[in-house]
Design a protein that fits this description.
Layout: E1 10-21, E2 24-35, E3 39-43, H1 50-57, E4 65-70, H2 80-83, E5 86-89, H3 101-109, H4 118-124, H5 140-152, E6 158-162, H6 170-183, E7 189-193, H7 197-203, E8 206-211, E9 214-219, E10 232-237, H8 249-253, E11 264-269, H9 273-286, E12 294-296, H10 300-307, H11 309-315
Parallel strand pairs: 3-7, 3-8, 5-6, 6-7
Antiparallel strand pairs: 1-2, 1-4, 8-9, 10-11, 10-12
Helix pairs in contact: 3-4, 3-5
The protein binds adenosine-5'-triphosphate (ATP).
Adenosine-5'-triphosphate is lined by residues 21, 24, 26, 44, 46-52.
GO biological process, one term: response to antibiotic
Family: Belongs to the ABC transporter superfamily. Drug exporter-1 (DrugE1) (TC 3.A.1.105) family.
InterPro entries: AAA+_ATPase (IPR003593), ABC_transporter-like_ATP-bd (IPR003439), ABC_transporter-like_CS (IPR017871), ABC_transporter_ATP-binding (IPR050763), P-loop_NTPase (IPR027417)
Length: 316
Protein backbone atom coordinates (compact mmCIF):
# COMPACT_ATOMS: atom_id res chain seq x y z
CA UNK A 1 0.00 0.00 0.00
CA UNK A 2 1.29 3.47 -0.81
CA UNK A 3 0.85 6.41 1.52
CA UNK A 4 1.35 10.08 0.94
CA UNK A 5 5.00 11.03 0.63
CA UNK A 6 6.43 7.50 0.37
CA UNK A 7 6.41 4.92 -2.36
CA UNK A 8 9.06 2.60 -0.97
CA UNK A 9 8.16 -0.98 -0.15
CA UNK A 10 10.83 -1.35 2.50
CA UNK A 11 10.00 0.62 5.63
CA UNK A 12 12.95 -0.48 7.78
CA UNK A 13 16.36 -1.49 6.45
CA UNK A 14 19.15 -2.42 8.84
CA UNK A 15 22.60 -3.49 7.71
CA UNK A 16 25.47 -4.58 9.97
CA UNK A 17 24.01 -2.98 13.09
CA UNK A 18 26.27 -3.10 16.13
CA UNK A 19 25.78 -1.75 19.63
CA UNK A 20 28.41 -1.77 22.32
CA UNK A 21 27.82 -0.94 25.98
CA UNK A 22 31.36 -0.40 27.26
CA UNK A 23 33.26 -3.63 26.56
CA UNK A 24 30.04 -5.62 26.00
CA UNK A 25 28.63 -5.92 22.49
CA UNK A 26 24.84 -6.38 22.83
CA UNK A 27 24.09 -6.27 19.08
CA UNK A 28 26.74 -7.90 16.91
CA UNK A 29 25.98 -7.26 13.24
CA UNK A 30 22.24 -7.39 12.65
CA UNK A 31 20.65 -7.19 9.19
CA UNK A 32 16.90 -6.92 8.79
CA UNK A 33 14.24 -5.60 6.50
CA UNK A 34 10.60 -4.77 7.22
CA UNK A 35 8.21 -4.26 4.32
CA UNK A 36 5.38 -1.81 4.10
CA UNK A 37 2.07 -3.04 5.51
CA UNK A 38 3.39 -6.20 7.16
CA UNK A 39 3.25 -7.30 10.77
CA UNK A 40 6.84 -8.14 11.63
CA UNK A 41 7.55 -10.06 14.85
CA UNK A 42 10.93 -9.67 16.54
CA UNK A 43 11.54 -12.54 18.95
CA UNK A 44 14.35 -13.47 21.27
CA UNK A 45 15.15 -14.50 24.84
CA UNK A 46 15.81 -12.00 27.62
CA UNK A 47 18.93 -9.99 26.95
CA UNK A 48 19.09 -10.98 23.26
CA UNK A 49 19.27 -7.36 22.07
CA UNK A 50 15.65 -6.67 21.10
CA UNK A 51 15.09 -3.49 23.11
CA UNK A 52 18.49 -2.15 22.09
CA UNK A 53 17.68 -2.72 18.41
CA UNK A 54 14.17 -1.28 18.70
CA UNK A 55 15.38 1.81 20.54
CA UNK A 56 17.91 2.42 17.76
CA UNK A 57 15.15 2.08 15.15
CA UNK A 58 12.94 4.49 17.12
CA UNK A 59 15.76 7.03 17.28
CA UNK A 60 16.09 6.83 21.08
CA UNK A 61 19.56 5.29 21.10
CA UNK A 62 22.74 5.99 19.08
CA UNK A 63 24.30 2.91 17.50
CA UNK A 64 27.97 1.98 17.54
CA UNK A 65 28.08 0.92 13.87
CA UNK A 66 25.96 -0.09 10.87
CA UNK A 67 23.44 1.42 8.49
CA UNK A 68 19.85 2.06 9.58
CA UNK A 69 17.04 3.49 7.50
CA UNK A 70 13.51 3.88 8.90
CA UNK A 71 10.90 5.41 6.59
CA UNK A 72 13.77 6.51 4.38
CA UNK A 73 15.71 8.36 7.09
CA UNK A 74 18.46 7.64 9.58
CA UNK A 75 16.68 7.70 12.99
CA UNK A 76 19.79 9.25 14.55
CA UNK A 77 19.41 12.35 12.41
CA UNK A 78 15.66 12.45 11.72
CA UNK A 79 13.53 15.35 12.95
CA UNK A 80 9.99 15.89 14.28
CA UNK A 81 8.31 15.38 10.88
CA UNK A 82 9.79 11.86 10.77
CA UNK A 83 8.81 11.18 14.39
CA UNK A 84 5.18 12.13 13.63
CA UNK A 85 5.09 9.27 11.09
CA UNK A 86 5.96 6.72 13.80
CA UNK A 87 3.89 5.37 16.69
CA UNK A 88 5.47 3.77 19.74
CA UNK A 89 3.63 1.69 22.33
CA UNK A 90 5.91 1.02 25.27
CA UNK A 91 5.50 -1.82 27.75
CA UNK A 92 4.26 0.44 30.52
CA UNK A 93 2.73 3.88 30.52
CA UNK A 94 1.08 6.26 32.94
CA UNK A 95 -2.30 7.67 31.85
CA UNK A 96 -2.89 11.37 32.32
CA UNK A 97 -4.56 11.91 35.69
CA UNK A 98 -8.18 13.12 35.80
CA UNK A 99 -8.65 13.04 32.00
CA UNK A 100 -11.23 10.86 30.33
CA UNK A 101 -10.25 8.41 27.65
CA UNK A 102 -11.47 10.73 24.87
CA UNK A 103 -9.70 13.73 26.45
CA UNK A 104 -6.41 11.80 26.58
CA UNK A 105 -6.65 10.90 22.91
CA UNK A 106 -7.66 14.48 22.00
CA UNK A 107 -4.66 15.83 23.95
CA UNK A 108 -2.30 13.58 21.97
CA UNK A 109 -4.04 14.42 18.70
CA UNK A 110 -2.91 18.01 19.29
CA UNK A 111 0.75 16.93 19.07
CA UNK A 112 0.44 15.77 15.44
CA UNK A 113 0.14 17.64 12.15
CA UNK A 114 -2.58 15.41 10.66
CA UNK A 115 -4.28 13.39 13.42
CA UNK A 116 -6.98 10.79 12.94
CA UNK A 117 -10.43 11.71 14.28
CA UNK A 118 -10.62 10.82 18.00
CA UNK A 119 -13.90 8.88 17.66
CA UNK A 120 -12.48 6.77 14.86
CA UNK A 121 -9.41 5.87 16.90
CA UNK A 122 -11.49 4.87 19.93
CA UNK A 123 -13.64 2.72 17.67
CA UNK A 124 -10.52 1.12 16.18
CA UNK A 125 -9.14 0.04 19.56
CA UNK A 126 -12.53 -0.93 20.99
CA UNK A 127 -12.76 1.85 23.58
CA UNK A 128 -15.72 3.80 22.16
CA UNK A 129 -17.90 2.80 25.12
CA UNK A 130 -15.26 3.96 27.60
CA UNK A 131 -14.78 7.37 25.91
CA UNK A 132 -16.09 9.25 28.97
CA UNK A 133 -14.49 7.04 31.63
CA UNK A 134 -11.56 8.40 33.61
CA UNK A 135 -8.42 6.85 32.13
CA UNK A 136 -7.05 5.82 35.54
CA UNK A 137 -10.16 3.67 36.11
CA UNK A 138 -9.53 1.44 33.08
CA UNK A 139 -8.62 -2.24 33.47
CA UNK A 140 -5.08 -3.31 32.51
CA UNK A 141 -6.25 -4.54 29.10
CA UNK A 142 -8.23 -1.36 28.43
CA UNK A 143 -5.24 0.73 29.42
CA UNK A 144 -3.08 -1.01 26.82
CA UNK A 145 -5.80 -0.25 24.28
CA UNK A 146 -5.61 3.37 25.28
CA UNK A 147 -1.82 3.24 24.78
CA UNK A 148 -2.40 1.92 21.28
CA UNK A 149 -5.02 4.63 20.67
CA UNK A 150 -2.53 7.32 21.75
CA UNK A 151 0.06 5.96 19.35
CA UNK A 152 -2.44 5.66 16.48
CA UNK A 153 -4.01 9.08 16.74
CA UNK A 154 -1.10 10.68 14.86
CA UNK A 155 -1.94 8.38 11.91
CA UNK A 156 1.49 6.68 11.92
CA UNK A 157 2.81 4.68 8.98
CA UNK A 158 4.89 2.52 11.30
CA UNK A 159 3.91 1.31 14.76
CA UNK A 160 6.29 -0.24 17.31
CA UNK A 161 4.41 -2.51 19.70
CA UNK A 162 6.40 -3.80 22.66
CA UNK A 163 4.88 -6.91 24.26
CA UNK A 164 1.34 -5.65 23.72
CA UNK A 165 -0.51 -8.41 25.60
CA UNK A 166 1.68 -9.11 28.62
CA UNK A 167 -0.59 -9.60 31.63
CA UNK A 168 -3.77 -10.03 29.59
CA UNK A 169 -6.34 -12.74 30.24
CA UNK A 170 -7.07 -15.06 27.27
CA UNK A 171 -10.13 -13.17 26.04
CA UNK A 172 -8.41 -9.77 26.30
CA UNK A 173 -5.48 -11.22 24.31
CA UNK A 174 -7.81 -12.40 21.56
CA UNK A 175 -9.44 -8.98 21.42
CA UNK A 176 -6.03 -7.28 21.27
CA UNK A 177 -4.96 -9.62 18.47
CA UNK A 178 -8.07 -8.72 16.48
CA UNK A 179 -7.26 -5.05 16.99
CA UNK A 180 -3.62 -5.48 15.88
CA UNK A 181 -4.63 -7.59 12.87
CA UNK A 182 -7.10 -4.81 12.01
CA UNK A 183 -4.19 -2.36 11.63
CA UNK A 184 -3.28 -4.23 8.45
CA UNK A 185 -6.36 -2.87 6.73
CA UNK A 186 -5.17 0.65 7.58
CA UNK A 187 -1.86 -0.05 5.84
CA UNK A 188 0.08 0.47 9.09
CA UNK A 189 3.37 -1.45 9.30
CA UNK A 190 3.70 -3.10 12.71
CA UNK A 191 7.01 -3.96 14.38
CA UNK A 192 5.95 -6.31 17.16
CA UNK A 193 8.18 -7.46 19.99
CA UNK A 194 6.76 -10.38 21.91
CA UNK A 195 7.69 -13.35 24.09
CA UNK A 196 4.52 -15.22 23.12
CA UNK A 197 4.99 -17.62 20.23
CA UNK A 198 1.26 -18.08 19.71
CA UNK A 199 0.97 -14.30 19.37
CA UNK A 200 3.68 -14.21 16.69
CA UNK A 201 2.15 -17.20 14.96
CA UNK A 202 -1.31 -15.65 14.98
CA UNK A 203 -0.33 -12.14 13.91
CA UNK A 204 2.97 -12.03 12.08
CA UNK A 205 3.57 -12.11 8.35
CA UNK A 206 7.27 -12.58 9.05
CA UNK A 207 9.29 -13.50 12.11
CA UNK A 208 12.92 -12.80 12.96
CA UNK A 209 14.65 -14.40 15.92
CA UNK A 210 17.60 -12.70 17.62
CA UNK A 211 19.79 -14.49 20.15
CA UNK A 212 22.92 -13.18 21.81
CA UNK A 213 22.98 -10.12 19.54
CA UNK A 214 22.76 -12.06 16.26
CA UNK A 215 19.88 -12.95 13.97
CA UNK A 216 19.54 -16.74 14.16
CA UNK A 217 16.52 -17.22 11.88
CA UNK A 218 13.99 -15.39 9.80
CA UNK A 219 10.98 -16.43 7.76
CA UNK A 220 7.25 -16.77 7.91
CA UNK A 221 5.77 -18.36 11.06
CA UNK A 222 5.11 -21.48 8.97
CA UNK A 223 8.59 -21.89 7.51
CA UNK A 224 11.04 -20.40 10.02
CA UNK A 225 13.83 -22.76 11.08
CA UNK A 226 12.77 -25.29 8.41
CA UNK A 227 9.54 -25.88 10.31
CA UNK A 228 7.54 -26.91 7.26
CA UNK A 229 10.11 -29.59 6.44
CA UNK A 230 10.38 -30.94 9.99
CA UNK A 231 9.08 -34.43 10.70
CA UNK A 232 5.59 -34.76 12.16
CA UNK A 233 5.31 -36.19 15.65
CA UNK A 234 2.71 -38.90 16.20
CA UNK A 235 1.75 -39.94 19.72
CA UNK A 236 -0.58 -42.67 20.92
CA UNK A 237 -0.92 -45.31 23.63
CA UNK A 238 -0.69 -48.99 22.79
CA UNK A 239 -4.18 -50.50 22.95
CA UNK A 240 -4.70 -52.74 26.02
CA UNK A 241 -3.62 -56.32 25.43
CA UNK A 242 -1.12 -55.41 22.69
CA UNK A 243 2.66 -55.17 22.69
CA UNK A 244 5.17 -53.18 20.72
CA UNK A 245 6.05 -56.23 18.64
CA UNK A 246 2.43 -56.39 17.41
CA UNK A 247 2.71 -53.05 15.62
CA UNK A 248 2.98 -53.05 11.81
CA UNK A 249 6.53 -52.71 10.46
CA UNK A 250 6.18 -49.07 9.13
CA UNK A 251 4.95 -47.97 12.57
CA UNK A 252 7.77 -49.71 14.43
CA UNK A 253 10.29 -48.23 11.99
CA UNK A 254 9.09 -44.71 12.84
CA UNK A 255 9.39 -45.19 16.60
CA UNK A 256 11.56 -42.38 17.95
CA UNK A 257 14.77 -43.47 19.70
CA UNK A 258 14.20 -44.37 23.33
CA UNK A 259 10.45 -43.86 23.05
CA UNK A 260 9.35 -47.51 22.95
CA UNK A 261 9.10 -48.20 26.68
CA UNK A 262 6.70 -45.55 27.99
CA UNK A 263 2.91 -45.87 28.12
CA UNK A 264 2.59 -43.37 25.31
CA UNK A 265 4.62 -43.91 22.16
CA UNK A 266 6.26 -41.23 20.06
CA UNK A 267 6.82 -41.69 16.32
CA UNK A 268 8.49 -39.32 13.87
CA UNK A 269 7.59 -39.28 10.21
CA UNK A 270 8.43 -37.01 7.28
CA UNK A 271 5.33 -38.32 5.52
CA UNK A 272 2.84 -38.99 8.33
CA UNK A 273 0.31 -40.89 6.21
CA UNK A 274 2.84 -43.65 5.51
CA UNK A 275 2.69 -44.40 9.25
CA UNK A 276 -0.87 -43.35 10.05
CA UNK A 277 -2.38 -45.58 7.33
CA UNK A 278 -0.92 -48.85 8.65
CA UNK A 279 -1.45 -47.76 12.27
CA UNK A 280 -5.15 -46.99 11.73
CA UNK A 281 -5.70 -50.23 9.78
CA UNK A 282 -4.02 -52.24 12.52
CA UNK A 283 -5.99 -50.60 15.35
CA UNK A 284 -9.25 -50.97 13.48
CA UNK A 285 -8.63 -54.67 12.89
CA UNK A 286 -8.34 -55.03 16.68
CA UNK A 287 -11.46 -52.97 17.31
CA UNK A 288 -9.59 -50.08 19.03
CA UNK A 289 -10.11 -46.39 18.38
CA UNK A 290 -6.69 -44.95 19.42
CA UNK A 291 -8.60 -42.23 21.25
CA UNK A 292 -5.48 -40.36 22.36
CA UNK A 293 -3.88 -40.28 18.89
CA UNK A 294 -2.15 -36.94 18.27
CA UNK A 295 -0.35 -35.74 15.14
CA UNK A 296 1.55 -32.47 15.11
CA UNK A 297 4.29 -30.61 13.36
CA UNK A 298 6.77 -28.79 15.62
CA UNK A 299 5.14 -25.60 16.86
CA UNK A 300 6.73 -22.19 16.39
CA UNK A 301 7.62 -22.45 20.08
CA UNK A 302 9.45 -25.78 19.52
CA UNK A 303 11.44 -24.20 16.69
CA UNK A 304 12.14 -21.07 18.71
CA UNK A 305 13.35 -23.07 21.72
CA UNK A 306 15.68 -25.08 19.47
CA UNK A 307 17.02 -21.92 17.81
CA UNK A 308 17.72 -20.17 21.10
CA UNK A 309 18.84 -23.21 23.14
CA UNK A 310 22.51 -22.18 23.28
CA UNK A 311 21.80 -18.76 24.65
CA UNK A 312 19.36 -20.05 27.23
CA UNK A 313 21.88 -22.71 28.35
CA UNK A 314 24.56 -20.04 28.72
CA UNK A 315 22.21 -17.91 30.84
CA UNK A 316 21.21 -20.83 33.13
N1 LIG B 1 22.31 0.76 29.05
C1 LIG B 1 22.94 -0.42 29.08
N2 LIG B 1 24.19 -0.55 29.57
C2 LIG B 1 24.82 -1.72 29.60
N3 LIG B 1 24.30 -2.88 29.14
C3 LIG B 1 23.06 -2.83 28.64
C4 LIG B 1 22.31 -1.60 28.57
N4 LIG B 1 21.10 -1.87 28.01
C5 LIG B 1 21.11 -3.20 27.74
N5 LIG B 1 22.27 -3.77 28.12
C6 LIG B 1 22.66 -5.19 27.96
O1 LIG B 1 22.56 -5.52 26.57
C7 LIG B 1 22.01 -6.80 26.39
C8 LIG B 1 20.77 -6.69 25.51
O2 LIG B 1 19.75 -6.00 26.23
P1 LIG B 1 18.32 -5.69 25.63
O3 LIG B 1 17.58 -4.91 26.65
O4 LIG B 1 18.49 -5.10 24.28
O5 LIG B 1 17.74 -7.17 25.49
P2 LIG B 1 16.23 -7.65 25.21
O6 LIG B 1 16.34 -8.66 24.13
O7 LIG B 1 15.35 -6.49 24.98
O8 LIG B 1 15.84 -8.36 26.58
P3 LIG B 1 14.38 -8.47 27.33
O9 LIG B 1 13.62 -9.51 26.59
O10 LIG B 1 14.80 -8.96 28.69
O11 LIG B 1 13.76 -7.12 27.34
C9 LIG B 1 21.72 -7.35 27.77
O12 LIG B 1 22.80 -8.18 28.14
C10 LIG B 1 21.66 -6.12 28.65
O13 LIG B 1 22.11 -6.41 29.95
Amino acid sequence: MTRAGTTEDVVIRVCGLRMRYGPFEAVRGVDLEVRRGEIFAFLGPNGAGKTTTVEILEGYRRRTAGEVSVLGEDPQRAGPAWRARIGVVLQESQPERDLTVAECVRLYAGYYPAPRPVGEVLELVGLAEQADSTATRLSGGQRRRLDVALSLVGDPELLFLDEPTTGFDPSARRAAWDMIAGLRSLGVTVFLTTHFMDEAEHLADRVTVIADGLIVAEGTPETIGGRERAAAEIRFSLPPGTALADLPAPVLAALADGEGDGARLLLRADRPLTVLGPLAGWAESLGHDLLDLEVRRPSLEDVYLALTANEREAAA
